[in-house]
Each structure stands twice: as C-alpha cells, then as structure tokens.
Amino acid sequence: MSTAATRDNEPAIDQEEIIDGILDWVEMETPTYDAARVNKLADKIQTQWEGTGCSVERVPGKDGFGDHLIVRTPDWTEDAPSILVLSHMDTVHPVGTKDDSNKIRREGDSLYGPGIYDMKAGAFLPYYAYRHLRRMGAGTALPVSFLFVAEEEVGSPTSRAVIEAEAKKAKYVLVTEPARDGGKLVTARKGVGRFEMTITGRPAHSGAKHEDGRSAVKELAHHILEIEGLTDYDRGVTTNVGLVSAGTGVNVVPRVATAEIDLRVVNAADGEEITAKILDRKPRDPDVTIEITGGMNRPPYELNDANWSLFELAREVVAESGLVLESTALTGGGSDGNFTSALGVPTLDGLGADGEGAHTLNEQVYISSLVPRAKMWVRLLEGLT
After folding, report:
1. What pLDDT is recorded for position 11?
2. pLDDT digits over 309-358, tens only?
3. Phi, psi at residue 335, to the nearest 5°?
4. Which residue, among 199, 238, 235, 203, has the nearest Cα to 216 in the 3D structure?
5. Contact, 244 vs 196, CB < 8 A?
6. Adjacent-strand bridge partners of 59
7. Across 181-191, average pLDDT
8. Which contacts of 266-269 are long-range, i.e. CB under 8 A and separated by 24 or more positions?
C-alpha cells in the first residue's frame, strides 16, 4: 500500500504509540501449544478492549489450547449487518526466542521480534484504529466483532466452529494476516490438506532372516514418489511429503513407517480429486498394510465476485484518505479467511502490517508501514457499509 496526499483533517496517529503497543504484545510469547501463555495475552487483550467500552466474550479453550476472545462494539446485535475482524494470538516460535535468536529490537525501518509480522502487529492495528476513533468521538459505520483465536498456526482445530458461526452473522470479514509484496492485500489463498500415512510390514533380522521381512520403508518409498508425482504446477496443485519416520535399527527390516503429507490446491474440485488419490492407496506388497487419515484442513479461498467486490469497496473507502490499496496474486499459505470465504461471506485478507520473515528468525515489520496501515484501518472501520 502506498500513500498519496492525505486529507487536511486526517486525525493524527502516533507511530511511537503504535510501536509501543505492538511490542507490548510481542513481549508476551505465545507458542500455540502453551495455553497458559496464550491466555495471558488474551487477558491483556480483553482488558484493553473492555477499556474501549466494547463487550468481550471469552470462549474457554479445549484440547489443550488457549481461549478465544469475541469482542463486540456496543451497537452490535445478532441480526444487524456487521463486520467480523479475524485475528490470531498464537505464534510458531518457542518461548525464549525474543531474548535469543530473534531479539526484540529496532533497526532502521525494521521492528523485529517473534510473531511480530505473523501476526501481532496486524492483530493490534484494528484495536488501535478503533480506540483512535473513540478518542475522536467517532465510531464505526457498521457494528463490528473482533475475533481473536488461540491456535490458527496449527489449523484452528478448536476455533473453526467459532469462526464459521461468527462469519455467518457478518456482512464482511476482514483478516489481519500479514500484508504481501509491499503492502498488498490478499484476495485468494490455496486450500490446504493434511494427511498421515502409516505402513505396517514385518520385522526381521536384516542379515540372518532378510527374506522373512516385509519392509515398511520400501513400501513407503513407492508411495512417496507417487504422491509427490501428483504435483501439477499448471493447475496450482502441490503435494509435499514433509515428515517421514521409520525403523528401529539399521540391522532390522523396518516394521512401521509413517509419513505426513501436505496438499495445496486452488479450487475445491482439485481438492476432492487429489484427496481421493491420496486416500485410495493400495499396498504393492500383499503382506503390508496401509492406513491413511486426513483430508482438506482449509477449503480454498477462491477469487470470486464477492471477494473482489469487497476489495474494490475497501479501495474506494480508503482512497478518501489518500491511501492506495493493491491486491497480490494467489498465495499458497492458508488462513482462517479460507473458512469464511468458503461460506460465501465476502472476505478480504492481508490487512496486517507490511514486513517479511513470517515463521523465521528474521521476522520483522516495516515501521514506515504502521501509520499508513493504521489509517487504513480507521477508514475501513468508519467507512465500510
């Protein structure tokens, strides 16, 4: 996103205040599987939002994950058209990263820290924008719900039902995942499938009784090549056997071998086709068994008329503040926006901060993007109808 001349009456937005707020959240490390730490950040977010006059509903976590927060503006009602702003509190980084391999620091135009780009800066910006509107004595054009989930980084297994229920009440969904390619928004994402294959053979001594064994690894090798061969770049289909485990010793014909498989597709039809080809596998060796579990974890977030119309509307709304929005091409990474788009609710993603290094030890946001991005959020909240 680039900026043109801004309106003379554009409210002042404080860059340092934004930075302080983002770093306050980044300081609280929140790896997905550490529910206690995720909930500490949820406590802070709940207190901050309650300070704006919004109501906060806390959905208790389950299956070892943290709680989810549903924040609603005072004018929100079940039946009125509204906006859903979708964020997540968890990150992929282990505790201690902020003091070691990606220390929180400011260097030039970059602000570093674990989870700062994906997606604590993005999650903070709508809060800052709403609080800014309240300070100015203004409000949102439509009622808004702000949903913060605890386990997006592992596929949102416990929050998907909450996300979909809230999306069904909304006119639009805005997702605060990181911006792409210099601030561009996301209007389409690939769908994501996950599978686990377990092959069971027969163990034997690899020297004395090799002929009695049935190697699970040998069987798995055939299936790895076949599954990887389903990749079709022209169709936007990729398969990746990313994790493999097998064997108990080099001198033992391996009895068990497992593989975890990632699938990415552009549309639902391809998802169904490739899923069937992965699940419908038969052993080459009749003395070996194969068990495969899994399926599509996130449906494709397809570029359709509804999503593009929302992008065009957002572009018109923010242009009144001299801001220019652009859209990136299809991206391969999934988000919770995949769920909402698949429901037919107009969805716009990539509304977080500009930066780079998601899921790496070089994760950073660009300081120069923060004020324009905050202004964008102010305009979206006060202008989308």
Report:
1. 58
2. 999 999 999 999 899 999 998 999 999 999 999 999 999 999 999 999 99
3. -150, 175
4. 199
5. no
6. 68
7. 96
8. 266/190, 266/191, 266/235, 266/236, 266/237, 266/300, 266/302, 266/330, 267/191, 267/300, 267/302, 268/191, 268/299, 268/300, 268/302, 268/342
- Report the candidate in 50, 33, 12 with the shortest Cα–Cα distance to residue 157: 33
Give me 247's structure tokens.
């064997």
> How far is it, in rounded angstroms, from Cα 242 to Cα 27?
31
Domains in the chain (CATH in brackets) are 2-189+301-383 (3.40.630.10), 191-298 (3.30.70.360)
Distance in angstroms (rounded) separating the CA atoms of residues 325 and 311:
8
- Give yes or no for a contact between 89 and 123, defined as CB atoms under 8 angstroms apart: yes
Pairing of strands 68-72, 83-88: unpaired
As a whole number of angstroms, the distance between CA 356 and CA 117 comes to 7
Tokens at residue 129, please?
């924008």
325: nearest Cα among 377, 382, 266, 381: 377
| Total-model pTM | 0.91
Tokens found for residue 83: 């906006």
Element (H, E) at 342: helix 337-342
What per-residue confidence (pLDDT) applies to 329?
85
Q: 7 pLDDT exceeds 90?
A: no
Backbone angles phi, psi at 236, to 5 degrees: 80, 25
- The span from the CA of 194 to the CA of 181, in Å, is 27
Count of CB atoms situated within 10 Å of the CB of 149:
27
Phi, psi of 357 (to 5 degrees): 85, 30
Question: What secondary structure does DSSP assign to 92-146, as a single string?
Answer: SPPTTGGGTTT--EEETTEEE-TTIIIIIHHHHHHHHHHHHHHHTT---SS-EEE
Closest-CA residue to 352 (of 105, 166, 174): 174
Q: Can you read off the two tokens belonging to residue 353?
A: 């901060």
Torsion of CA 325, 113, 119, 302, to 10 degrees: 70
Active-site residues, by number, are 90, 152
